[in-house]
């Protein structure tokens, strides 16, 4: 089974943990407990294949920056989360993306921009256009989600898996085929 | 009177083209009633002249007049003046005599005189009326008047004078002419003579005229002379004035010139003043007192006074050098020279300061705390750098000067400082960490050895003495106080020895102790429950000790780092520009009550923006260089704690988590806060790993063959762990982390219980399950963990299900035949047979029933129960015999239930048959209790 290492990034309180837990356990976490770092594993079927997703839920605060490089290096796909109720959380993502690209040393990193808390339409500050615009600029996908109302939660992770598959088709199979050819 | 005359002229006579010449106000003398009227004399303006006398009456109402009667003057026959004195009456006789009475004598006389004149003038002699009783004087006045010189002609009377030029000669002129002609009677005859005489007269008159003119000429001349004189005077004065004017003009222009000059002078003066001022300023600004120069050159930086002098001198120098000179001024040679001097002074002093400071730094850095190591070995203290900072701080202003004056030297100094001081810090922190580790080992060793031999206890005690002096664990002290007393003599020597051993085999002992602890867990897990509880009680305090010590370590590190950071910013003036970065946190607190504050706080809680706590690069760099050791040592310490006992991850997670949360709330971007943040992730990973290991241990757990099951080791372990974790995590901010671990562990434990139970070869799985579930349930109930509430309910139902299953399975149908008999009865009833009719069926007749009942005598039943009890005892473990009782109780209930069921059916289907079982319910209860007691 192929493993996918996904990393969820974004400012504190935007709902990274809520999205992850909703995806993995199907529960909405009402309480806000600042995360240090949590990793989850979940087996899913994506693109007609069983996949093991290893999702790293990270801290949103600056205090833990020094460890970022490491998990950015290890991560294969990145969920960049902002809250549509906070402009600052939206603005913060640019730096994070820069860092990812720097660590990965490439422009093409499987990545999805996510505007969470879209159930709070009344408190919206970041418009859909803004999100779309930024995604276009970054040439990545974009989605608005709600961990609370279970909107698009699974889509973001599946989208990332798809992106990773597209960028790096499963290496094992190829090798098998190759070796098979050699034998013949 | 003239007013009336005027009014009459206007109203009466002008309209008819006549001129009023005389008027008298009269009253008719005849009648008694005086009728007031005016008697007027008028002439026509048109020619031929006619003269009228008219009587005019004034209308009673209004101002108008009315002509009553008009006579021609020709008609006047006699004028009777009735010439007595003061008589105002007179008569005028026209066709008849009319009597008049004037209002005054004067009026009468004037009118009569007028009449006389008119008659004279306009009536030929024959027609002239006779004037009787009129005083001669009246009639003559005008005649004599006419005899006067021609000059008086005009004065004849106002009336005459008003007549036109065109008039005929007046009577007087006539008279005059007549007289003149008569005087020159020859005139007619000798016109020539007349002309001559006239011309003679004329010339005489001319002469007289000229004469008089001549007479006045002298005066005129005189006048002219005077005028001439006056004129010349005026000219004189004018020229004088011109002169003056000229003079004044001159003065004015001079004044103007003077004014110009004065303003020039003033400007010049001002400019001079300015220049002087400017020069003064320049000189003042560029002047550096000799004292200052001297101070910069040779003041002793080792002395306070020298530092002070240098500071003010450096300030002055800086000021002088910073003076912004107007363009061009710097080209002044003096200025250039001065600047050169300054520059050399600056370089010289910068170098001097640099050298002095760097020696200071080197000295400080090389001060070895070795001597204090022994003293501090048991006290977990980091040497304070306060004295160093105190020694350096006086140079603070000079460093600021250096920063401005010579950036390279300043940067060099920074580097020298960090290089040297980091040596010191590295040493100190290493020592400190060693001490901390020793302390951890001591504590762990003490715990591990506590139940062991007396010697061991005494040796660890000796080691622990310094810390036990302030240790809060009094119970421990008490327990061991006796041994202290016993062994106090040998303490010192032991102490020395032990230290040596510790110094050399530290690493070894760490591992040994760690292993011992781990082994201890295992043993404890497998051992009986009571013993394990007792040890874990003790263990709890031990865990706290680790936390306490770990906290102490952080408490020591924190002020050291913060003091240094504060000192660096102050001493090297690092965050002059970025001082505002610290504000948001502070102001947040102050604004707490305002709405904005609340809103902001809410927002902060909701979305904790990754605020790039913009750390001043310089200070960050310096701190990193200075405390590079901290990060590695902290990581080592975390690893050490982990190695000592993986459970320590819990402690560290809580302790560091607390610090980090605090730092976050304070918006503390300090160096240490970041270090701890990284540490925390490390610890969290250790923690996750630990939990993972625990789970996989549970998942893989199995029980060796031939062993009693009872409470499974991993269940006991779970209980110990949860208890311990609760004591560590209670009220911690990291509660959510442990909660997550609990849930996963619980899930694993429940699964493992079922799995192990299923594998059990001898003991029924139900027993294993309900025993362990029961244990879990007790544990969860006493700990009251909110997040496990759901699991607790789950465990509870699993427990009771399994218990029930076991009871039914074990007890089965103790009265088998009866059971099957009644089952049959029930089937029959279910197929529609009425209860009362059941007894009539052959299979279920009363005889059959009685046969069945007979097979179960009270004795047999009791025997059966006894063997059942033995079986249960064999299955269930002896560890908790309350549970056995619970099971036995359940069995009793089940038995009684069956019994009652039979009785019920008997009374329904076989009424009045008096059939009963061989034994009563009371018998049953007695059997059960007696069996429980005797066993
Ligand atoms: N209304 C709403 N609230 C959300 C949503 N997602 C998360 N939250 C809340 O936002 C707060 C922070 O969520 P959390 O996942 O802990 O944020 P993290 O710091 O990014 O991990 C919590 O109180 C959540 O209940 C969402 O989709 N809608
Ligand atoms: Mg989170």
Automatic annotation (TrEMBL), chain A:
It comes from the Eukaryota. InterPro entries: P-loop_NTPase (IPR027417), Rap1 (IPR038851), Small_GTP-bd (IPR005225), Small_GTPase (IPR001806), Small_GTPase_Ras-type (IPR020849). It catalyses: GTP + H2O = GDP + phosphate + H(+). Pfam families: Ras. Keywords: GTP-binding, Hydrolase, Lipoprotein, Nucleotide-binding, Prenylation. SUPFAM superfamilies: P-loop containing nucleoside triphosphate hydrolases. This is small monomeric GTPase. It comes from Clavelina lepadiformis (Light-bulb sea squirt). The lineage of its organism: Eukaryota, Metazoa, Chordata, Tunicata, Ascidiacea.
UniProtKB/TrEMBL annotation, chain B:
SMART domains: Sec3-PIP2_bind. The keyword Disulfide bond does not apply. CDD domains: PH-EXOC1. Residues 32-122 form the Exocyst complex component Sec3 PIP2-binding N-terminal domain. Keywords: Coiled coil, Exocytosis, Transport. The keyword Transferase does not apply. InterPro entries: Sec3-PIP2_bind, Sec3_C, Sec3_CC. This is Exocyst complex component Sec3 PIP2-binding N-terminal domain-containing protein. It comes from Clavelina lepadiformis.
């Amino acid at each position: 089974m192929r493993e996918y290492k996904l990393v969820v990034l974004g400012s504190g309180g935007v709902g990274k943990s809520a999205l992850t837990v909703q995806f993995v356990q199907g529960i909405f976490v009402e309480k806000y407990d600042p995360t240090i770092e949590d990793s989850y594993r979940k087996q899913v079927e994506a693109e007609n294949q069983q996949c093991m997703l290893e999702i790293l839920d990270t801290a949103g605060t600056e205090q833990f920056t020094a460890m970022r490089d490491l998990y950015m290096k290890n991560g294969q796909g990145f969920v960049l989360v902002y809250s549509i109720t906070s402009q600052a959380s939206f603005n913060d993502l640019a730096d994070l993306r820069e860092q990812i690209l720097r660590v990965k040393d490439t422009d093409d990193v499987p990545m999805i921009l996510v505007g969470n808390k879209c159930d709070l339409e009344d408190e919206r500050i970041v418009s859909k256009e803004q999100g779309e615009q930024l995604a276009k600029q970054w040439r990545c996908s974009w989605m608005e989600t709600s961990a609370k109302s279970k909107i698009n939660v699974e889509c973001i992770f599946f989208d990332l898996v798809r992106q990773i598959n597209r960028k790096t088709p499963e290496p094992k199979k190829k090798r098998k085929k190759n070796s098979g050819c050699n034998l013949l | 009177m003239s007013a009336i005359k005027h009014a009459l002229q206007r109203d009466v006579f002008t309209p008819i083209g006549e001129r009023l010449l005389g008027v008298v106000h009269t009253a008719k003398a005849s009648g008694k009633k005086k009728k007031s009227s005016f008697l007027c004399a008028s002439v026509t303006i048109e020619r031929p002249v006619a003269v009228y006398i008219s009587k005019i009456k004034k209308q009673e109402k209004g101002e108008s007049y009315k002509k009553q009667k008009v006579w021609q003057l020709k008609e006047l026959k006699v004028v009777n003046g009735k010439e007595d004195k003061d008589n105002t009456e007179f008569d005028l006789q026209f066709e008849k005599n009319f009597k008049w009475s004037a209002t005054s004598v004067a009026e009468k006389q004037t009118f009569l005189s007028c009449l006389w004149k008119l008659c004279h003038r306009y009536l030929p002699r024959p027609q002239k009326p006779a004037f009787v009783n009129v005083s001669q004087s009246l009639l003559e006045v005008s005649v004599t008047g006419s005899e006067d010189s021609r000059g008086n002609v005009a004065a004849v009377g106002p009336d005459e004078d008003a007549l036109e030029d065109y008039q005929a000669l007046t009577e007087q002129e006539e008279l005059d002419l007549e007289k003149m002609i008569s005087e020159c009677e020859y005139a007619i005859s000798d016109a020539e003579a007349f002309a001559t005489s006239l011309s003679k007269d004329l010339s005489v008159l001319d002469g007289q005229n000229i004469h008089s003119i001549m007479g006045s000429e002298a005066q005129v001349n005189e006048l002219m002379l005077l005028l001439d004189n006056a004129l010349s005077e005026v000219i004189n004065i004018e020229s004088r004035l011109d002169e003056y004017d000229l003079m004044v003009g001159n003065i004015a222009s001079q004044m103007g010139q003077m004014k110009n000059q004065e303003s020039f002078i003033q400007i010049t003066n001002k400019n001079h003043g300015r220049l002087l001022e400017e020069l003064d300023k320049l000189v003042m600004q560029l002047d550096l007192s000799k004292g200052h120069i001297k101070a910069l050159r040779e003041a002793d930086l080792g002395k306070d006074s020298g530092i002070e002098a240098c500071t003010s001198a450096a300030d002055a120098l800086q000021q002088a050098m910073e003076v912004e000179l107007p363009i061009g001024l710097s080209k002044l040679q003096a200025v250039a020279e001065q600047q050169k001097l300054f520059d050399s002074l600056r370089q010289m002093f910068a170098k001097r300061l640099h050298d002095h400071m760097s020696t200071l730094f080197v000295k400080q850095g090389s001060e070895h705390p070795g001597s204090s190591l022994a003293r501090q070995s048991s006290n977990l203290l980091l040497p304070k750098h306060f004295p160093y900072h105190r020694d350096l701080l006086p140079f603070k202003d000079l460093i600021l000067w250096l920063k401005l004056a010579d950036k390279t030297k300043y940067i060099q100094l920074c580097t020298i400082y960090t290089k040297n001081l980091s040596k010191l810090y590295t040493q100190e922190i290493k020592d400190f960490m060693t001490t901390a580790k020793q302390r951890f080992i001591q504590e762990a060793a003490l715990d591990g050895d506590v139940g062991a031999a007396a010697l061991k206890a005494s040796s660890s005690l000796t080691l622990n003495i310094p810390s036990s002096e302030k240790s809060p664990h009094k119970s421990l002290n008490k327990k061991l106080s006796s041994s202290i007393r016993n062994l106090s003599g040998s303490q010192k020597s032991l102490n020395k020895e032990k230290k040596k051993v510790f110094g050399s085999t530290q690493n070894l002992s760490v591992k040994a102790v760690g292993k011992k602890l781990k082994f201890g867990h295992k043993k404890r897990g497998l051992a009986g429950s009571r013993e394990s509880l007792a040890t874990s009680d003790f263990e709890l305090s031990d865990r706290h000790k680790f936390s306490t010590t770990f906290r102490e370590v952080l408490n020591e590190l924190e002020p050291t780092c913060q003091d240094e950071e504060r000192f660096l910013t102050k001493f090297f003036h690092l965050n002059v520009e970025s001082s505002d970065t610290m504000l948001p946190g502070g102001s947040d607190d102050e604004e707490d009550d305002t709405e904005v504050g609340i809103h902001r706080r809410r927002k902060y809680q909701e979305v904790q923006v990754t605020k790039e706590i913009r750390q001043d690069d310089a200070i960050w760099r310096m701190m990193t260089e200075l405390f590079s050791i901290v990060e590695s040592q902290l990581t080592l310490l975390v690893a050490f704690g982990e190695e000592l006992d993986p459970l320590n991850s819990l402690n560290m997670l809580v302790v560091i988590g607390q610090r980090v949360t605090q730092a976050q709330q304070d918006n503390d971007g300090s160096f240490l806060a970041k270090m701890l943040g990284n540490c925390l992730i490390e610890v969290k990973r250790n923690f996750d790993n630990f939990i993972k290991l625990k789970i996989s241990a549970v998942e893989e757990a199995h029980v060796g063959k031939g062993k009693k099951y009872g409470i499974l080791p991993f269940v006991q372990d779970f209980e110990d762990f949860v208890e311990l974790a609760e004591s560590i995590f209670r009220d911690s901010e990291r509660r959510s982390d442990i909660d997550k671990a609990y849930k996963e562990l619980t899930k694993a434990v429940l699964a493992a219980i079922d799995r192990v139970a299923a594998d059990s070869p001898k003991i029924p799985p139900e027993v294993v399950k309900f025993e362990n579930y029961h244990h879990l349930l007790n544990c969860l109930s006493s700990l009251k963990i909110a997040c496990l509430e759901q699991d607790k309910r789950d465990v509870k139902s699993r427990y009771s299900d399994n218990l029930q299953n076991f009871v039914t399975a074990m007890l089965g149908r103790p009265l088998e035949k009866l059971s099957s008999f009644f089952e049959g009865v029930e089937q029959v009833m279910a197929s529609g047979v009425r209860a009362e009719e059941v007894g009539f069926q052959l299979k279920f007749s009363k005889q059959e029933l009685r046969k069945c009942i007979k097979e179960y005598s009270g004795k047999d039943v009791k025997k059966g129960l006894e063997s059942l009890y033995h079986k249960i005892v064999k299955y269930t473990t002896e560890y908790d015999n309350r549970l056995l009782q619970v099971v036995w109780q359940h069995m009793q209930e089940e038995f009684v239930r069956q019994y009652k069921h039979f009785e019920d059916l008997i009374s329904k289907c076989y009424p009045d048959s008096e059939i009963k079982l061989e034994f009563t319910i009371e018998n049953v209860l007695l059997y059960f209790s007696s069996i429980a007691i005797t066993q």
